[in-house]
Amino acid sequence: MKGEQVPLVMVPRFTTLVGAGEFATAPLDVQRFARVVLTVWRGYLLGTSPTFHLYLEVSHDAPTDAADWVQLDDLTLNDDQAATIDHSLTRRWLRVRVVLGGTNPWVTCWASGGLDLRLT
Known about the structure:
The protein is mainly β and 120 residues long. It contains no helices and eight strands. The chain has a single domain (5-117), classed as Jelly Rolls, CATH 2.60.120. 0% of the residues lie in helices and 69% in strands. Strands 1, 2, 3, 4, 5, 6, 7 and 8 form an eight-stranded antiparallel β-sheet that branches. 19% of the residues are buried.
């Protein structure tokens, strides 16, 4: 049986990220939820040899070190492409991390969807 779905915005429409590096959302406490469903979109990737990776990550204790997060998904979307991520949640914290590579990269993207309440 599926629980009630609560709307979720991890990266607001239309967020522009500029420069090579990592951009992580604040950790979200999802212990009350059983599942996350996110639609992710990215626009045209600009710069010299730019790269784009979006990671959906979970953790038991929300550490600040990226190495201590567990990846649920790794998306490498093409220009003006969307994808849906659907995962069960077994850890307390959830975040989205975008990694831009190349020289002077920039991109516009968003990630939103919903969380299914855990039924007890």
